[in-house]
Design a protein that fits this description.
Elements (H helix, E strand, L loop, with lengths): L1 E3 L5 E3 L42 E10 L6 H13 L4 E8 L4 E8 L2 H9 L1 H14 E11 L9
Antiparallel strand pairs: 1-2, 3-5, 3-6, 4-5
Helix pairs in contact: 1-3
InterPro entries: ABM_dom, Dimeric_a/b-barrel, Jasmonate_Hydroxylase-like
Protein name: ABM domain-containing protein
Organism: Streptomyces ruber
């Protein structure tokens, strides 16, 4: 992947290979396999639908630490909570064999995203994540202006 820095320098970054066994699920799209961020590797790879723009995405990229006590339970609870946010559209998640996790949350508008960001339980989970579960993470929020999809018949 090529990236241009603010100074105009072009930098190449390796793109991690995501195997066919990559875990990827969507909420509200097809059968439920335990949710977007659960550990059910039998779930088929299927992205969420292409929503009608404009909408917002939150891209959360993580590297988890060795300490994972309580992570699965908290993760399941966060999934329950975000589903109840008015304007939450869905979620995609992928995990590389090397441990890089990418979760993309889709929200109808900035208000929905703000409601999720300010949820008290979500805030507590974020704090615990920084203290225990993540070696590093990045969060990117963007407004989607164009969206389309393809699905083989």
């Amino acid at each position: 992947m090529q990236h241009q820095t603010p100074s105009g320098t072009s930098v190449m970054y390796p793109v991690p290979h995501v195997s066919a066994r990559c875990r990827r699920w969507s909420i509200g799209c097809g059968p439920s396999y335990g949710g977007a961020m659960s550990d059910h590797s039998e779930a088929p790879a299927a992205p969420v639908e292409a929503y009608e723009p404009p909408y917002y995405v939150a891209v959360f990229t993580t590297v988890r630490s060795q300490e994972q006590s309580g992570y699965s339970e908290t993760n399941a609870r966060m999934e329950e909570l975000v589903r109840d946010v008015p304007g939450f559209l869905g979620m995609d998640h992928a995990q590389t064999p090397g441990g890089l996790g990418i979760t993309v949350g889709y929200f109808r508008d900035a208000d929905a995203l703000t409601e999720w960001r300010n949820n008290a339980e979500h805030r507590a989970a974020q704090k615990r994540g920084r203290a225990e579960w993540y070696e590093s993470y990045t969060l990117h929020v963007a407004k989607v202006e164009r969206s389309h999809g393809f699905r083989r018949a």
